[in-house]
Amino acid sequence: MSKVSLPPGDGFDVAGLEAVATADNVGAPVKQFAVQIRDVVFGERCALVQPCNLYECRLGDDVFVGPFSEIQAGVVIGNRTRVQSHTFVCSLVTIGDDCFIGHGVKFINDAFSDMRVAFADEAHKWEATTLGNNVLIGTNATIMPVNICDNAVIGAGSVVTSDITEPGFYMGVPAVRIGDPPPDDKRRKAIDTDDH
User: Fold this and answer.
1) Which of 35, 48, 89, 136 has its CB surrounded by the most CB atoms within 10 Å?
2) Which CATH superfamily is domain 32-182 in?
3) 55 near 33, Cβ under 8 Å?
4) Residue 86 appears among annotated catalytic residues
5) What one-character DSSP code corresponds to residue 164?
6) Which residues form a coiled coil (predicted)?
7) Which of 86, 103, 124, 196 is catalytic?
8) Across residues 93-101, what is the average pLDDT?
């Protein structure tokens, strides 16, 4: 594994964009943030499609990250996992091996337990999420702070609000178990590594 940081300007960089002036903001200072890849520990043969934000996280071997995704500090992603485009993986998320995270999936670490947002200075209020191995999550699913066991499939658009402790198919808002997984002898890995 190697730790990598790319300086601004390598790949997509929004620092050169100009702010649009309106009657309300003429002369107002504008904060601008560049897309970046900073302090990431990459396994072997990882692939990223720019633009994406990754910082202070760890990716296993053969991980793929699609464009317009953000992976925050402290995230760990297992070997051969695919994170599709427009996905947000917040701090305190651990994803196992051979997982598939569909387009637009959002992980949440702040459940607003005291009816307000807990910013970084209150990170002690954030909660962790752990995905086992061979977990598939469909497009636009939302994953609250939960634990999901190995061999679970989460349907597109579902909201997972409680732990999933039994392999199977889950869908809905909130997600509920709707079916059994295939038998072990018929089960394939979520990701075909020959095609990765």
Assistant:
1) 89
2) Hexapeptide repeat proteins (2.160.10.10)
3) no
4) yes
5) B
6) none
7) 86
8) 97
